[in-house]
Amino acid sequence: MAQQPGARGLVFNEPLIFEHGRKGRKGCDVPKSEFPETDPAATMPPALLRGPVEGLAEVSEPEAVRHFTRLSQWNYGVDSNFYPLGSCTMKYNPKVNEAAARLEGFAGLHPLQDASTAQGALRVMYDLERMLCEVVGMDAASLQPAAGAQGEFAGLLLIRAYHTEKGNPRKKVIIPDSGHGTNPASASLCDYATVTLPSGPDGMIDLALLEKEMDGETAALMLTNPNTLGMFEKNIKKVCDIVHAKGGLVYGDGANLNAVLGKARFGDMGIDVCHMNLHKTFSTPHGGGGPGSGPVLAKKFLEPYMPAPRVTLRDGRYDLDFNRPKSIGALNAFWGNFGVYLRAYAYVLTMGGAGLREASETAVLNANYILAKLRGAYHVPYEGTCMHECVLSDKFQQEHHVSTLDIAKGLIDRGFHPPTIYFPLIVKGAMMIEPTETESVETMDAFIAAMKEIAEVAKSDPESLAAAPVTAKVKRLDETQAARQPDLRYRR
Amino acid sequence: MEYPDGLSYTKDHEWALEEEGVVTIGITDYAQSELGDVVFVELPEEGTVIKAGEPFGVVESVKSVSDLYCPVSGEVLEVNHDLEGEPELVNSSCYDAGWMMKIAVSNKKELGELLSAEQYADYIKSLK
Q1: Which of A128, A394, A438, B112 is the most buried (most CB within 10 A)?
Q2: ipTM
């Protein structure tokens, strides 16, 4: 285990940048300006003038580079090892996507350039929208939303705009308890009350209960499929029919899209609007590695409400159309996180349709492999074949007073990033493991061995897990005190 | 686990105590133990009118964030401001110093629909 990254290695203790350097030290000299100096006070109102700034770091270039290089060595990411964070799809980010995003013609663009001088960039956006529509069976897409939660927000704004135009925006949104965590927040932001729908014993939507809750004041059902238990809603068509019969719309949360690429499409299931996460399913950097992107996609009848501007293609010319009177408006500064579109575009083209399908097949196979190998050592709260992630619980370990948190900390000592813990909320002591398609069987076997060893240690030496992690740079943190009395500010 | 007699309980794990039309509300021993260390409690403004079954606030622990549901309808008279600085009172004293709010109950009949200590204890057993 000592060879695992994170468990051992070059870990420097590193002070804050403010504790480096000395007064007056600089990284570079700014040449003297060829223009005469002016006194800002002569041209600016006093309120806008800045006095002397105290306390900035004063370091040389090598000091700055070494500082941040050392900090980067504390990092644990998909480029260092397995990152099985369930619900997050921490797949490897292919480096060819980075090359595409750094092409000078794209990287040097200014967002206010005339459309006639940015035809290639607009084509990438137009084509990516078409590709994403194909993947989920929708008619229109907008790339603007900056992340999944904003994509959800956009989707619900579309739904609200649609109902409002029909005369009644309606009052509530139904969300199954196996839905994604951000769903209720998105509904609430759009001024809808949320109704939680408890799952049936099989972890699926209870059709009878849905029928009872669904009425003429329900704007939409928000559905995560596969759901957060990692299971596919088998009655999806019936679910959509029940909602449509009362004039409601169905929102599909694409958080778990990585399970069904090339296999099942939201549009074909009867879903009216959905989002997807380019930073999950389409392999763009994620979680501190880069901004997200959560395109919103919808059926044709919702297209008039889509965020403006829209990218258009007429007579072979690409353009931006701002004249969208029914649009819910712009959701992002300029045209969204364009660098992310390039990476996703490169991903789709390098994978191809067959490649995307194979990615999902492998992702599902990998999750089931882990589930099959860990069944017995860990409790499986909802039995059956899982999709791209599996959910275990600490029920067996609780007998020895070892909790999910202890197991997660034990994994750090064994060189692995812990899975998602205590989510989904409907499973007590949940551990949600998502290997993704990019992991080899050897990597998964090493993870499985670590999990099994922890299950053994939980019986033979539970105290050692209560002390974990011991090999990490920082030992077990007092998370309670950190939350109750957060120390958020550096003081000299 | 303790569920004092004389309090009324909900299946969402809140307790309610009525005294001369004023109902004091908090969360149960089971709730605080399931949540783990409470780190933040968000309570409504005094004067807010809340209906039975609606969320009135949020309790955040190291593990999760949960809505608090109001056992009876009425107007909020007072909230426990001590919880702003000492959320741990919810863990150490859920029925006393860790109370959350007092409301002027608008329909006393709703109290009759809540669970007794014995019924609530049975309900907790059925969850296991």
Answers
A1: A394
A2: 0.73
